[in-house]
Design a protein that fits this description.
alpha/beta; TIM Barrel; globular; binds cytidine-5'-monophosphate
C-alpha cells in the first residue's frame, strides 16, 4: 500500500501563507514542494524550516546552466537537507552527470530528477525550438539521456508514465503533476488524472497543489487523497 506519495506544491507568493498551510499538514502524510516563486521570496530559510519540522522537501528549481554551475547549485541544495532536487534534461548529459557527482559527494544525498519536456509545451512549441518528433518521443529520449547520465528519475505527465515504465523499467522515479481528485476544479491543468489513476499507471509520487492548498480543510483533503490511494 503506498504511503507518503503526495507532494504538496506550495505555490505561494507570500511566506506566511505557505507557513500557515504547512502548520496544518502532517509530515507523515505528505511531502512538500518549494518552487521558484516561494524560493525567491523566502529562500533557503523556509526550506530549512520545513526540513527541521521533519518534512521531505522537493526543491523544484529546475536547474539548467553550465555543468559546473548546476553541480554547485545541487551541492548547495543537498546541504539544505532537501529530499529531491531537479534539473532540466535539456541541459545535457554532462550537466546531469556533474550534478549527480556533486550530490553523491555531499553529506546528504537528495534524489535527482530531470524535467523532460514541460507539460505546457505543445507540438508547435516543440517544433519552434527545433525539436522534431512527437512530444512522447522527446520525453522518452530525454528520460533515457537523464537516466544514462545518472538521474534517479524524471518529472513527467501522468499520461507519459506507461510508456516510460515500458521503455525504462520500474527502477526509475516518476514524479507526476497534473493530478485532480474526482470532482475537484481542473484549474489551468489540461491533461489530468486522479490520484488513484496516476498511481495505478505507475507514478511514484504525485505533485498536488490547489486541490489541497485551496481546500477549506487542507489536511482533510490530503487525508481523503491518501485514502483514495488505498
Ligand atoms: O495546483 P496544481 O496541482 O495544478 O499544481 C501543480 C504543480 O506542479 C505546480 O507547482 C506546477 O508548477 C507543477 N508542475 C506542473 N506541470 C509540470 C511541472 C510542474 O503542473 N509539467
Amino acid at each position: 500500500m503506498p504511503s507518503n506519495r503526495v507532494i504538496v506544491a506550495l505555490d505561494y507568493a507570500n511566506k506566511n501563507e505557505a507557513l500557515n498551510l504547512v502548520n496544518q499538514l502532517d509530515a507523515s502524510q505528505c511531502k512538500l514542494k518549494v518552487g521558484k516563486e516561494l524560493f525567491a521570496i523566502a529562500g533557503p530559510q523556509i526550506v530549512e524550516t520545513f526540513v527541521a519540522r521533519g518534512f521531505d522537501v522537493f526543491l523544484d528549481l529546475k536547474y539548467h546552466d553550465i555543468p559546473n554551475t548546476v553541480a554547485m547549485a545541487c551541492k548547495a541544495a543537498a546541504n539544505m537537507g532537501v529530499w529531491m532536487v531537479n534539473v532540466h534534461a535539456m541541459g545535457g548529459a554532462k550537466m546531469i552527470s556533474l550534478a549527480k557527482e556533486a550530490i553523491v559527494n555531499s553529506s546528504h544525498q537528495p534524489i535527482l530528477t530531470a524535467v523532460t519536456v514541460l507539460t505546457s509545451f505543445d507540438q508547435d512549441q516543440l517544433a519552434s525550438i527545433g525539436l522534431s518528433g512527437t512530444i512522447e518521443q522527446n520525453v522518452v529520449r530525454l528520460a533515457k539521456l537523464a537516466r544514462d547520465a545518472g538521474a534517479d528519475g524524471v518529472v513527467c505527465s501522468a499520461l507519459e508514465v506507461a510508456v516510460l515504465r515500458s521503455e525504462i523499467g520500474k527502477d526509475f522515479c516518476l514524479v507526476t503533476p497534473g493530478i485532480r481528485p474526482a470532482g475537484s476544479a481542473v484549474n489551468d491543468q489540461n491533461r489530468i488524472m486522479t490520484p488513484a489513476e496516476a498511481m495505478a499507471a505507475g507514478s511514484d509520487y504525485l505533485v498536488i497543489g490547489r486541490p489541497i492548498t485551496q481546500a477549506k480543510d487542507p489536511l482533510a483533503s490530503l487525508i481523503a487523497i491518501n485514502e483514495s490511494l488505498g
